[in-house]
Each structure stands twice: as C-alpha cells, then as structure tokens.
Amino acid sequence: MKKIVFLILMCMGLIGYAQDDMTQKSIDGLLEMTQGQIVALANAFDDSQMDWRPAPGIRSTGETILHVAAANYYLAMKLGFPPPEGVDVMKMETITGRENILEAYNASTAFVREKMMAIDPGSLNEEVDLGFAKMNRLSALMVVLEHTGEHKGQLIAYARSNGVTPPWSQPQ
C-alpha cells in the first residue's frame, strides 16, 4: 500500500511539473506563431512600404517592427535577463532597411523566447515590476504575447492600407 501511495504522489508531482512546463511551452508556441506572422508581413511589404506611416508622428511599418523588438528586450530585462552586449534598446527604432530590421527583430524574438523558457516554472507566481505595472512572471510572459499580437494587428492594418494581403489570408 505504501508503494502505491508513493507512486501516486510521484505521478502527481510529475503532472504538476509537466503542467508548469506546458504553460511556458504553450505561450512560446503562440508567440512563435505570432512572431512568424510579423516576419511574413514584413516580407510582404516592398522596401518603400517599410517607411510608410499612416500619418505624421505615427510609427512607420519598420519602426513598428523595431518597437516590438525593443519591447522584447525590455520585457526580458524586467524578468531579469539583460539584453545582449551591443543591443541598445533605446535606439532600435533608428535601424533602417528591411534586412537590418528583420535581423534585429529575429534576434529579439529568439532572445525573449529563450529567456522565457529559462524561467523556473516554480517562480511564475513571483511578482515583477515591469515599470508600467506590477504583476507575476506568468502575466509578464502574457504581456510579451499580447504586445506582439497588438502590433501584428497594427501591421495588418498597415498592410491592408497599402494593398498588401497578409500571406496567411491569401486564397489557396
């Protein structure tokens, strides 16, 4: 009987661990998809459309992508992971040229996803100060996902305004 109880407790512990790991993996999977759609959109714009902005004083297409890249580093920093050497979060939106913009964006997405998976699942309920709100680490990971999705939507509007159909919306 003791062996059965021990096995049940072990299984429950493993299930709890797997669920914590599943939380981060689920967020990571959604983030990977959303980030990939931003890259697909960026590749659907022509070079001149990367500089397009809906009105003066509003971020251009390229600046919007770089804003998301900077936020990836900023949010990772608030979770305890400083940006890699040579990354200046405050100057990211000054990068020009589609290839340079995508290189910076892709580096930021790989960084934030790697750091997100490095967080101890047992610490997901610990409070962090993001500068604009205090929340637990899990909520902060959701902010990364939500922020990326928010600007994907903005880029879809930019695309439609420029006659660009998002690649995943094109008829098969």
Draw up the topology in text.
Elements: H1 2-44, H2 61-78, H3 98-118, E1 127-129, E2 134-136, H4 137-161
Task: Explain briefly what this protein structure is.
The protein has helices spanning 2-44, 61-78, 98-118, 137-161, and strands at 127-129, 134-136.
Task: Describe the protein.
- With 172 residues, the protein is mainly alpha-helical.
- 62% of the residues lie in helices and 3% in strands.
- It has helices spanning 2-44, 61-78, 98-118, 137-161; strands spanning 127-129, 134-136.
- It has a two-stranded antiparallel sheet with strand order 1-2.
- Strand 1 and strand 2 (134-136) form a beta hairpin.
- Helix 1 (2-44) packs antiparallel against helix 3.
- It starts with a helix and ends in an 11-residue tail after the last helix.
- The relative contact order is 0.18.
Which features does this protein show?
two-stranded antiparallel sheet, single chain
Total beta strands: 2
Average pLDDT: 91
Fraction of residues in β-strands: under 5%
**How is the main sheet built?**
2 strands, antiparallel
Which of globular, elongated, flat, extended, rod-shaped describes the shape? globular
Q: List low-confidence stretches.
A: none
Order of SSEs, N→C?
A: HHHEEH
